[in-house]
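Minutes, project check-in
Item: structure for the 93-residue chain
Input as provided by the requester:
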Amino acid sequence: MSLFPSISTGRVLRRRFVRYMLRVVGTTTRDRRFNLREARINEGLSHEALATRLGVSHNTLRRIEDGGLPQPRVAKLIADYYRRRVSDIWPSL
């Protein structure tokens, strides 16, 4: 093994480090869109637990997490719960 790794090895290590840091530290909201499923899982909540806190059915949350658009009332409940604006989570609403 050489004391001076090649340039390509350095690039590979740098990419791996960046990926690792993004997993560990995460990214800012400017870098990524809000993801309801990730937010719920990060809090350790099930569909049923979050649905109970919001006052909606767990099937509603599953539909939204699978890509469906929520009703405006539900969108406002979710945005308020996560202290975000509805337009930050769902730009099309």
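Outcome recorded: The chain has a mean pLDDT of 80.
No further action items on this chain.
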